[in-house]
Amino acid sequence: MYSVADLKKGLKITLDGDPYLVVAFDFVKPGKGQALYRTKMRNMINGTLLDRTYRSGETFEPANLEDRSMEFLYKEGSHYTFMDQQTYEQVIMEEDAMGDAKNFLLENLKVDVMLFGEKAIGVSLPNFVNLRVIATEQWAKGDTSGNDSKPATVETGYVLRVPPFIEEGELIVIDTRNGEYSTRVKG
Amino acid sequence: MKSDLLHLRAHVIKSIRDFFWERGFLEVETPLLIPANAPEEYIDPIFAFPGLQLQTSPEICMKRLLARGHSKIFQISHCWRSEERGLRHLSEFTMLEWYRSESDYTALMNDCRELLQRVAQLSCPHANFFTRNSVKISPTHPWQHISVQEAFLRFGQVDVLDCLENGLYEEILTSVIEPALTDCNAPVILMDYPTELAALARTKPGSPQLAERFELYVGGLELANGFSELNDPVEQRRRFEAANRMRRHIGKESLPLPEPFLEELSGMPPSAGIALGVDRLVMLTADVESIDEVVAFTPEEL
Questions:
Q1: Mutate to test the interface with A, among B40, B41, B59, B85 (most CBs of A within 10 A)
Q2: Which of A29, A54, A56 would best serve as a mutation to test chain B binding (most B beta carbons within 10 A)?
Q3: What is the C-alpha separation between A178 and A184, in angstroms, rounded?
Q4: Domain span at residue A142?
Q5: CATH number of the domain residue A148 falls in
Q6: pTM over 0.90
Q7: Is there a contact between A117 and A92 (Cβ–Cβ < 8 Å)?
């Protein structure tokens, strides 16, 4: 159980059944008056922002969050299924909760799934993933248009800009933090 | 803390000291570890040892010095208040307090005016103003004096007594009134607080529901709290006991009463005293938003 004295940026609490991240916090206390604890919080499931002011004596349930190492198994409709390799326990995550992570998920990829109680609410990817280019235009030798990149589609369906020399069927490295091409996998 | 702010802080403190020495105030030091502070509903002392608390304000000892015949005294000292930490709060902070006997709170308002004029020269050497949220605030301009009742009516269209009753006082003060004061190009005196917000202040002659207490705001920043001192030991004890009842009512422990202070209070002449946050004065002089920027170390850095 947290008290108002524990409130600070980065604290994760449970509110109305959802996990919230404190993104801004201030303590105000007018002379001789009661202290107010002003917070701005983000719902960790749907991202909505909430302003709440608390007073001394109020308490909060910590958000029961756990990052667990899991493997991505498969996607079915809007459901993504992950499995804990140790316990073989499976969790399903809705596409809405996946954010940009869905662009980089290939079967058998090892990721960290954030669990709120039993519910999977987020996924952290490795910083770099290897994905195969399944469609891109041929680079015409002697092209003088001056373009130093071209669009390419990778096997997850994600489209990004790659250098002109990348060809269909090549394996490339993508930085999952910004979604950009990093390098090509040699060999 | 940036090195130039450490220098600025030293200059602000030196200016304060020079200011009071030049005016014939005696600089005093009183113990920081004391058996009892003045009990207040919303101020929690830190207990350092069984039976000894760190001072939340030097007021108790300083008023005993008034009772012993010292008529103009000042002190710059550290104070501690449990679990106060924010953009404008540190649990351990630096307080300036000064007291005048045979005076009331209007004399303190004059002191504030002259002190801020002196310190503003450090903020802007030739023009004598502070800057906060891009507003230039000149302590030489005419100051606005607004009663708390009027401020609640004018800026919030609400009655302050209703707000106190409904627990909305702090919310309206900090989210409506203080922001409204940020645009003033001169310091503002918010004055004549309801007595329940002035545990140690004398009531206003003819208005027993109001206390002769004021707060000094510069650019919306609460800088100082001063009042005409209550010197009736019976009434003072009654208010301390009421504060302890309120504390128990909200689930806090009762605090011991400063008995020697109560014994000597009847010997204190009519006096006025004020507490000014030195860290906040440095924030104002430096035009910074966070108290963290004006102290050598924050608690989190230790």
A1: B85
A2: A29
A3: 17
A4: 128-184
A5: 2.40.50.140
A6: no
A7: no
